[in-house]
Amino acid sequence: MKTRTMMKTIALILAVLFLSAPAMAADTIKIAFIDPLTGPFANVGDMGLKHFIFAADRINANGGVLGGKQLEMVPFDSKVSPKESLIQLQRAIDQGIQYVIQGNGSAVTGALMEAIAKHNKRYPDQQLLLINHAAVTPAFTEEKCDFWHFRTDAHVTMKIKVIADYLTSRPDIKKIYLINQDYVFGHSVSAAAKEYLAKMRPDIEIVGDDFHPIGKIKDFSPYITKIQSSGAQGLITGNWGNDMTLLIKAGTSAGLDLEYYTFYAGGLGGPTAIGEAGIGKVYQVTEFNNALCIQYKNKEDEERILAFKEKYGEDIFYLKSKVTMDMLAMAMDKAGNAKPKDVAYALEGMEIDGYYGKTIMRAQDHQLLQPMFMSRLVKQGEGFAKYDMENTGMGWETVYKVDALDTAIDSPCDMKRP
Amino acid sequence: MSEFIIFSLLNTLIYGLLLFMLSSGLTLIFGLMNVLNFAHASFYMLGAYFAYQVSIHVGFIPALFLAPLGVGILGMIVERYGLRKVHAHGHVAELLFTFGLFFLFNELVILIWGRNPVDYQIPDFLDFPLFTLFGADFSAYKGFMLLISIAMFIGMYLVINRTRIGLVIQASLTHPEMVNVLGHNVPAVFMYVFGAGAALAGLAGVIGGNFLVTEPGMAMALGPIVFVVIVVGGMGSLTGAFISSLFLAGLQTFAVGMDYSLADFLGHFGIQASSEGFWGDIVRIEIANTRAMIPFLFMIFMLIFRPKGLMGVREE
Amino acid sequence: MIDNTTMDSAEIKGGQAVQSGFSGAAIAKWAGIWLGFILISLALPKIFDSRFAMSMFNQMGIAIVFALSFNMLLGQGGLLSFGHAVFYGMGGFGAIHVLCMVNDGELRIYTELLPLAGGIFAAILGFILGFISTRRAAIPFALITMGIGELLLASSLLLPSFFGGEEGIAGDRWTEITLLPFKYGKSIEVYYLILIWMFLSVAAMYLLTKTPLGQMANAVRDNHQRAQFIGYDPHKVRTFQFTLAAFFAGIAGGLFAINYEMVTAENLGMLPSTDILMMTVIGGITYFFGPILGAIFITFLQLVVSNVTHAWMLYFGIMFIIMIMWAPDGLAGLIMRHQPIWRAKRMTKILPSYLAALVPGLVMFAGVIVLVEIMFHISLSIDPESPLSIMGVSFRAQAFMPWAVGILLLGVGGYLFKLAARRVNQAWKTVLAEIKQEGV
């Protein structure tokens, strides 16, 4: 047994090296999923992978694409490193893969966008398509926009616009504090917030605009003290990971009386880390929460939530994973083949009726427009929060909806099409 | 403004004492053994994870004692069966060994507890506001952290100055050969000090892990800062570590309040700095933004201009 | 007190190995080894032609230059740096900025010479930072380099116009301005470019060990006071050595810029700094070729083994600790230890004992793998309930049997390995005694 198993491992390793001819089985279409699967952000990558496998399985169960071909997600570990993901991209190309889904780390997205654009120019017979499901840097669908890149998450400015839109329904909020991570993303959140608050709620006073070193702050108390003395009623932050949970934890433990408008409070591990102190105070802006299906009486989505939990024992976080895969499958059917160029053209301007409203892939800049929601952390059982998140006994309550077209932001993108 | 100052002072005290709890062990180990223990922050992380594991089963108070004990024993094992063996290969090997341990502990924690933060929460009986000042709460747990830190500080002071082993440690710091000649078992002293230092770091993990977040990245996040503390304080000096812990905590706490950039400064002289390109980036940086850099700048300058630190016992 | 403790008790063999290389036969032997190395490198893309293999070879070439430059500090200068990637990263940024200017038509520089631009940029920076940080060696030096690394990484986010923010700076290596008749669009062309630069750098660094500067660096490492007495300022020697190390790291960075056509701030952070440190140490710092072995071996692990198991970082860490504790001279040291026995044609005397140790060693290793993979599967995999497959055998990770098998393999293998290790020691002692007696 030992020699046989050893041989197998060696064969596996050699296969990686030798495999140059695309060994494509005719009845499956492989899709590379390049996201962190080891290292500090592996949990996020892992969760994303589950969502996409789940979505692909459902398409396959319904007969697949192009008259019976199956979609297969092939995971590659980006280690959130641009260099690493470029190497993994080469591996994917070796396997004859022509579709790449990625989302974590703008640096990785930027690297893949560049590399795929160059690759498609240098090897016109072996083109690739990139679908970005989470990197929110506006530039990717604005000045840096590229024909081979599609984004299925709302970008920073769009999310801020939703928050500002929500605040028009909250005349009681007069003072807003901005606190963000000190890098390009944090700065773009702050700039967008200033722009859109001035446009949509000119009476709001921005009483603070702080940037803190990313991932370095262990104790946010000093910032909380500053926020406290500014008299802010609401706080907008794009923080993610520990920078988000530590900020909110420090705020709630100091008894700070304000509302937190976040991008990522509902992200993996967020509700657990924030704890009950966040109830009624923490908001998120997303395309999905697990109370929507109750509120809008969507049985199909509820079934999806339950099936996911049944299969993985974890909660579902995205709708965009399903939308991404459905659109991709539809585009292949529409194009009549799985050639990235044809599929990309088919994707442009594609419209579907999503669970909660019309969803459009804008042709001009390849930015998906989908209904967005503001939701608030509540106790499970309150309102429509039938299901909780991460077994915390807390769920979400939708407080505001923005239709797909109303999330749109004008893009300066001047797409060059092949 | 006064509320900002009062709360900042309190925060400085809490953060500073936490830093001291971590750095005191490190600086003692360095002073005695001439080893810079890269894995020291790992003991802090392990303390938090042990406490989490123990507190699930028997509660927080037992964890407060058991977790540091466990970390201390682990530290002694590391010294006895690892460091002592590597010592023969020289100092670079010792550094590399502790660095390797740091790497390994991280991976082991991931292996056992996974990559997500674990749900290590502040115990219910300490989860209430202790007092309210200018409309902001000061939580009871912060008070508890202060209490533990001060108790530890007094305990350590008594051990070092009033007990026999403390005297041996003090003597070993300055005259290691002499102590050995006098018949004291210096290797055993090393082992106990290493264990005690690890236990202190573990204690910091127990009380800091739930206040902050208990996750595999916590050692990496705090490790470099602890080095800065002992360099600035003077490697091997407890008093120095105490002063520099509070100093650096204060520096980082108060820097938050300073929204002052080079552009503002130049503005005073009527100079309009360009906002484009590289220089635009530089003049835009506010003091508050450099919070992560200040400690390292201090460390570098200290090493260049005053390598023995504020209170260093010896130089070269 | 602190300075001269560096490496004092470690046995330094690098100097001897270098000096013994000047008899006629020895030169022929060295030339043979190098020629073989070159021929293999030239033939590699013909044997392994997948794109992944190409990327891996390119990465290996870059890592070899980077690791050797790191060893100019650690092995030859006794300086343990925790921030060497600063020069790798800055060299990369220097090269990519030049490339961008070429793309924009502001400059005309041959693509082939970009690494040189990176090297020069890094060397200038290296001279300044080296002057600051090399006044002391050992721990102060390690901490200063770590501090500089952290500082630059933190400032990279504050200075997006130079570092390009999170996404870094990208360029297009496919330019018209080239020295050779290639356009460097395809990675095979880049492979040969990296190969040329790698051999130039390796040769230059090897020859440097023989120059007076290289020799002085060794002297300062071994005893800086004595070096000072004979009239060499240790600070000056270290600064020059540091600058040169930075130069070659910059070349590696420039090669990175060409290969990936982009450079991000992650290149100058703590991670690549510690990566290169571990690579070099595992390869072996006391021999010139040690870092080359380390770079090849670890890059292979990082890129290939990480596709097979997610626990590769743990195996990497375990291997590092084992090396530090039992083989401080690294892989190169393990090989070179056999040189006298090889010369005396006595390898057959110890090989049986190796074979006897190999079997329990593999059993023990299999035990470790089984246990680690089970635990990883339970704590980290997508679906812990799904069956786990190790080397073709599938089972449920939660079951009792796999645990028992793992522990049994580890225990029995470990015990037998210990016995076998004793035998290896015995064989060594006898062989060495024989050689001594015969005076071979």
Automatic annotation (TrEMBL), chain A:
PANTHER family: LEUCINE-SPECIFIC-BINDING PROTEIN. It holds the Pfam family Peripla_BP_6. Belongs to the leucine-binding protein family. Residues 1-25 form the signal peptide. This is Amino acid/amide ABC transporter substrate-binding protein, HAAT family. Residues 28-381 form the Leucine-binding protein domain. The keyword Signal applies. One of its GO terms (biological process) is amino acid transport. Keywords: Amino-acid transport, Signal, Transport. InterPro entries: BCAA_transport, Leu-bd, Leu_Ile_Val-bd, Peripla_BP_I. It comes from Desulfatibacillum alkenivorans DSM 16219.
Automatic annotation (TrEMBL), chain B:
It is a multi-pass membrane protein. It comes from the Bacteria. CDD domains: TM_PBP1_LivH_like. GO terms for biological process: amino acid transport. InterPro entries: ABC_transp_permease, BCAA_transport_permease. Keywords: Amino-acid transport, Cell membrane, Membrane, Transmembrane, Transmembrane helix, Transport. One of its GO terms (molecular function) is transmembrane transporter activity. One of its GO terms (cellular component) is plasma membrane. Coiled coil: none annotated. It is found in: Cell membrane. The chain crosses the membrane at residues 12-36, 56-78, 90-113, 133-158, 189-213, 225-251, 287-305. Its main location: membrane. Belongs to the binding-protein-dependent transport system permease family. LivHM subfamily. This is Amino acid/amide ABC transporter membrane protein 1, HAAT family. It comes from Desulfatibacillum alkenivorans DSM 16219.
TrEMBL record, chain C:
Pfam families: BPD_transp_2. The lineage of its organism: Bacteria, Pseudomonadati, Thermodesulfobacteriota, Desulfobacteria, Desulfobacterales. Keywords: Cell membrane, Membrane, Transmembrane, Transmembrane helix. InterPro entries: ABC_transp_permease (IPR001851), LivM-like (IPR043428). It is a multi-pass membrane protein. This is Amino acid/amide ABC transporter membrane protein 2, HAAT family. It comes from Desulfatibacillum alkenivorans DSM 16219. The chain crosses the membrane at residues 27-48, 60-79, 85-102, 114-132, 190-208, 240-260, 281-305, 311-335, 355-380, 400-417. It is found in: Cell membrane. The keyword tRNA processing does not apply. GO terms for molecular function: branched-chain amino acid transmembrane transporter activity. One of its GO terms (cellular component) is plasma membrane.
